[in-house]
Amino acid sequence: MRHLVKLAEDKLNFGVRPLHSLEEHLDGAAEWLLRAQRATPDDGVAHSYDVKAQRWLASYPETTGYIIPTLYDYARYFDKPGCASAAARMAHWECDVQLEDGGVRAGTMDAEIVVPTIFNTGQVLFGWARAYHETGDERFKGSLRRAADWLVAAQDDDGAWRRFPSPFTSTKVSAYNTRSAFGLVRAFEALDDERYLAAAVANVDWVIRTAHSNRWIPGNCLIERANDAALTHTIAYSIRGILEVGQAAKREGFIEQALVMARAVAATQRPDGALPGQLSRDWQGIKPWTCVTGNSQMAINWQRLARITGETQLRECAVRANRFNMSIQDLVAKNQAIRGALKGSHPINGGYMTWRYPNWAAKFFMDALMLEYLGDRVANIG
């Protein structure tokens, strides 16, 4: 019944709340992530809270991996040492559950299928690289190298990753794996191994070769779609990977591709700051609900591009997206499982993470707000 109350709030616009300070919104999301870690029997972070089933889902190695740098950033810039301790425990847990071949498993810890997958491995690189930087612990260095080596070995000669797709998605050769290429950039920065940067560049080169004349990239969604539409969530993943690999490798063509894509997404932004949940291959919004994670991810992309290219109007798009997401974050909910959390979709029955509060929505929300709040003081945000 609670899920229907949440839906009614969203539909009637009661779910939109007065804005608090950026610090209060950040603190709400950080506290929720710590509760999501405590909700599991291990040191991973619960995949999500399902408001319909009224339960936490099992720990999710993929997203726990890239939550680690977010908590380290929050600990450093906002004097929250407990978040750094939590991040270190997450990183050790990732070492514990790393597969023998160096890869990271698909799905949550209770998934019946246990196989390594490209995307998930790429995301945990962020956590190990940052934990190694923060602590100097050789255990993190070893896991980082094994995972990065596995990704390089799995890559085809043309730069694509065709092996080891996720068994839980239907798109088997995914453009959004540029986000894994970005993970290899972090491995390169931590370990100074040029092979990792070369592999990242090769993947982005391949992805850009597949782009349409309007810079739309096919195969850029979790689900294979006949009309090639994609979630703003996965479009944002691909943009960030293209941008950051371009920045690391000094490839202006990559940065230009990311900029054109980011402008096209910005053109679909609603007056309230939200984005359509899905876009068509002609860059048109095709869903009335919004993907909350995609809003935050694009806010990150727009801020990074504004800093790199000087296109300051993109920063305004980012602020509007941040304000929308802030307006739908409940900081006073009696139910601690949703207090400070971010939904998968708004309304909550939308087509992405329906009825759920996924941990990565809180992670990217925090990254987007920290970029806005700290500006040039924050570096290497994940």
Automatic annotation (TrEMBL):
Keyword Lyase found: yes
Pfam family, one: Pec_lyase
Lineage top rank: taxon: Bacteria
InterPro entries reported in the protein's UniProt record: 6-hairpin_glycosidase_sf, Pectate_lyase
Source organism (scientific name): Plasticicumulans lactativorans
Keyword annotations of the record: Lyase
Signal peptide feature range: none
SUPFAM superfamilies named in the record: Family 10 polysaccharide lyase (SSF81853), Six-hairpin glycosidases (SSF48208)
GO molecular function: lyase activity
Listed name of the protein: Pectate lyase-like protein
Gene Ontology BP, a term: carbohydrate metabolic process
